[in-house]
């Protein structure tokens, strides 16, 4: 029995050698790639409960900016949440480690004047205000961004605004000139505005000529006369009184108003 078994083993070895010699390289590469495709895992897969716990921990650690500000308002703590102390112990400190100081507008203007003297900068620098508006309405609706006008009791601008009046009525044109309009005219001003021969800070119009001003929509954009903004109406003296001395502000980023409100040379 031993002899037939030995002869069978030798025959099988010879057949294997012959097959490996005759087999093309593509077959071997496909065999190896097939074997490589099956990866072997030597660790256990994490359970679903552990994944849920990790997700809950990650979501609980993340705090929004509003939540962070609310936590820092708690004055009963020894120090503000996430900061070093309530007040710095020295005049020179890293600002991000302490809460932002809150002062009255009068004190802030006086501080700004002091810093201007130390920095040798212009004494009448513009002062800007940043307001965050609540634009939410009922039923998850929001107020669309808008453009508004405000009239300060003590104007800080050295020069008034230039106002252009669109009208085709001779009487209205004379009234506009008498009330200080920089430019007055009808449809003949359209091409001059498109060619940038005439420019103004504000454009107002009477209701009868508004349909003829459509070619100026892309050119004037937000300055185009509209009844919602108060720049279209029959009362030309009232509109001129507003737009000659008003200050324009715009809602940015859905709820922010950043506008100039005074110069540092004026007292509040």
From TrEMBL:
InterPro entries: Ribosomal_uL1-like, Ribosomal_uL1/biogenesis, Ribosomal_uL1_3-a/b-sand. It comes from the Eukaryota. One of its GO terms (cellular component) is mitochondrial inner membrane. Gene3D superfamilies: 3.40.50.790. It is found in: Mitochondrion. Keywords: Mitochondrion, Ribonucleoprotein, Ribosomal protein, Transit peptide. The keyword Cytoplasm does not apply. Pfam families: Ribosomal_L1 (PF00687). Belongs to the universal ribosomal protein uL1 family. This is Large ribosomal subunit protein uL1m. It comes from Hymenochirus boettgeri.
